[in-house]
Amino acid sequence: MTKPFAYDLAAFNALQECVSDQPHRFSLNMAVCSDATMRSTLTQQLLAAWSNIEVISFWPYSEDVFEHVHEKVGEGPRDAIFIYGLDDAIASGADSASLYRKLNASPDRWKAWFACPIIFWVDKPTEEILRNEAKDFWEWLTGHYRLDKAPDS
Predict the structure, then answer these.
(1) pLDDT(61) > 90
(2) Cα torsion for 149, 12, 88, 151, to the nearest 10°?
(3) Domain range for residue 62?
(4) What is the pTM of this model?
């Protein structure tokens, strides 16, 4: 028998509100979900509810996340942009120092170019790394959605 997904429903509801309440207003956000299958399921639920969410994969890795997304994103209005792969890029051993430096310098660029919520989907270890290594970027986060359910919940 398959175990049902356990995730923080309040955090997921808050993430849904971020997308529905701010479709044409910039915000920089982080959704933390360590289980890849659950992350995919939650994303699919959001994509089913909003037709103008764009999903961008941060692949191939580079040291400038903003530039990568800026080049890949399509035309037109969006409800949100979901960015995947930052956790994989950090785990791969890519040039982390340059990646963090460029992330720290990027919030004004995100705000200038995108009029919608930007949501980085990462795992728990990446959340910790970004908090410590990309502090200026971290300070710009408007929303922080910890979707992993606590083990004792």
Answers:
(1) no
(2) 0
(3) 50-148
(4) 0.92
Domain assignment present for residue 32? The answer is no
C-alpha–C-alpha distance, residues 109 and 55, integer Å: 19
Q: Which candidate, 53, 115, 111, 107, places its Cα nearest to that of 84? A: 53
Q: Is residue 23 part of a domain?
A: no
Return the residue matching tokens 């009029």: 115
Q: Answer yes or no: is 15 within a domain.
A: no
- What are 83-103's pLDDT values in tens digits? 999 999 999 877 899 999 999
Across the range 115-136, mean pLDDT stands at 96
Q: Report if residue 137 sits inside a domain.
A: yes
Cβ of 130: how many Cβ atoms within 10 Å? 22
Q: What are the CA-CA distances from residue 141 to residues 74, 75, 127, 130, 131 (Å)?
A: 23, 24, 12, 11, 11
Domains held by the chain: number: 1
Q: Are the C-beta atoms of residues 7 and 148 closer than 8 Å to each other?
A: yes
- Please report, for residues 74, 102, 137, the alpha-carbon distance to residue 50 in angstroms, rounded to integers and kept in the order given: 16, 30, 27
Tokens 């909003």 sit on residue? 50
Number of other residues whose CB lies within 10 A of the CB of residue 31: 25
